[in-house]
């Protein structure tokens, strides 16, 4: 047995580079979309905020932002997810 084997959960099903959509949800307040774009740009500098898809909830209390980035590695995605989930305005990241 190889002592340096990767666990099945460590294998990525994504081939890099790849376009990867990330959905971020939070309260529908002024500045939410801009704050999300700023975080995404820190981890994906080639992201174009003009391509962000915005969708308010039926009651207009929440806003969903879908950002499609050009993912270059699993580490990049992991770092972006950590930054988004720790942001005080973010409720959910998918």
Automatic annotation (TrEMBL):
Gene3D superfamilies: 3.30.70.260. Pfam families: DUF493. Belongs to the UPF0250 family. This is UPF0250 protein Ga0061069_102161. It comes from Thiomonas bhubaneswarensis.
């Amino acid at each position: 047995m190889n002592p340096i084997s990767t666990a099945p959960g460590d294998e990525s099903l994504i081939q890099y580079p790849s376009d990867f959509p990330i959905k971020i949800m939070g309260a529908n307040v002024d500045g939410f979309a801009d704050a999300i774009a700023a975080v995404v740009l820190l981890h994906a500098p080639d992201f174009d905020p003009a391509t962000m898809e915005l969708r308010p909830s039926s009651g207009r209390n929440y806003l969903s932002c879908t950002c499609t980035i050009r993912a270059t590695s699993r580490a990049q995605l992991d770092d972006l997810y950590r930054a988004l989930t720790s942001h005080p305005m973010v409720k959910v990241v998918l």
